[in-house]
Amino acid sequence: xxxxxxxxxxxxxxxxxxxxxxxxxxxxxxxxxxxxxxxxxxxxxxxxxxxxxxxxxxxxxxxxxxxxxxxxxxxxxxxxxxxxxxxxxxxxxxxxxxxxxxxxxxxxxxxxxxxxxxxxxxxxxxxxxxxxxxxxxxxxxxxxxxxxxxxxxxxxxxxxxxxxxxxxxxxxxxxxxxxxxxxxxxxxxxxxxxxxxxxxxxxxxxxxxxxxxxxxxxxxxxxxxxxxxxxxxxxxxxxxxxxxxxxxxxxxxxxxxxxxxxxxxxxxxxxxxxxxxxxxxxxxxxxxxxxxxxxxxxx
Length: 299
What we know:
There is one protein chain. By secondary structure, the protein is an alpha+beta fold. It has helices at about 10-15, 20-30, 30-45, 55-80, 95-100, 100-105, 110-115, 120-130, 135-145, 150-165, 175-190, 190-200, 225-235, 290; strands at about 200-210, 220, 240-250, 250-260, 260-270, 275-280. The chain starts with 8 loop residues before the first helix and ends in an 8-residue tail after the last helix.
């Protein structure tokens, strides 16, 4: 989209809703790169639309985005079947105002995004549109090619599924940050007991190297195993490591640098002041939106 077209009505409308469309696509796909591709596909279809025939331009754009994201989601499911090790959502460096929107921050958190992975493509689309963006059943029905009655049933089923698996309560950013600080201090010093103190007994570590970076090929469960895995990895590593706090997916997280280069992002799920879920994304193909150091403003 060149500057000379910025006054074009179609362009103005698309730009005005771009953050919303990106967030819809990202929550459906868990991949910022694929969400950007969906936006490009949405734009190519949008510029061919006769705007005079469109009653609600925002709803129409969401409909196009949803359909393109559903097509992409079905393709991605085949890619994930061949993926090496656990698949984690692509982390997003997010602006502070995202964390202030508690509902949005929870919906894009690594823990909830992983729950969304367990839904079927249509269930995920319906859940995201209804529960996160409060889109009406008639509009969702048009987007997913279902009747409004069917969409209501799908929404109920998806909500029940997500509620049974999502974190029990929303944890404040300050509580998450405190747990991360304790974790970081123990990690910096290689303090095994310090790690055990901040990890919940039933903690699960998932690491995503995508077959490019070394990572555990299966989730690691239990505080002792996770702590020893982390400390053992530090002892093997001979490069200088710097671990800093950042905000990823609307929540405090850790950004890890090795020898001055980004090695990965650690997101966490915290309950009762201790880390119960640890998600380490090392796949370099998923770190481009963190490397850019430009926080995204969602919705």
